[in-house]
Design a protein that fits this description.
Layout lengths: L21 H17 L17 H7 L8
Length: 70
């Protein structure tokens, strides 16, 4: 019998605090936060993607993306 792993997926976008150095924020998400998630029952996959500190307008203007308010 095949075992099917079922669960809920999510994607959360977060911004680092502006009043702290970026490296301090990265260190927090890389170490204590990731360890907390790793010990949480039910999680079988967890990924973090860290991006550069470029303004949002730089890529949106390059890709001709329009702002939309709902």
């Amino acid at each position: 019998m095949n075992s099917v792993r079922r669960g809920v997926g999510s994607c959360v976008l977060l911004w680092l605090r502006q009043d702290l150095p970026r490296e301090l924020g990265y260190d927090y998400w890389r170490e204590p936060h990731a360890q907390l998630v790793a010990r949480t029952p039910g999680f079988y996959s967890y990924r973090q993607h860290h991006f550069e500190a470029t303004p949002l307008t730089s890529w949106s203007e390059d890709l001709d993306v329009e702002e939309m308010t709902l």
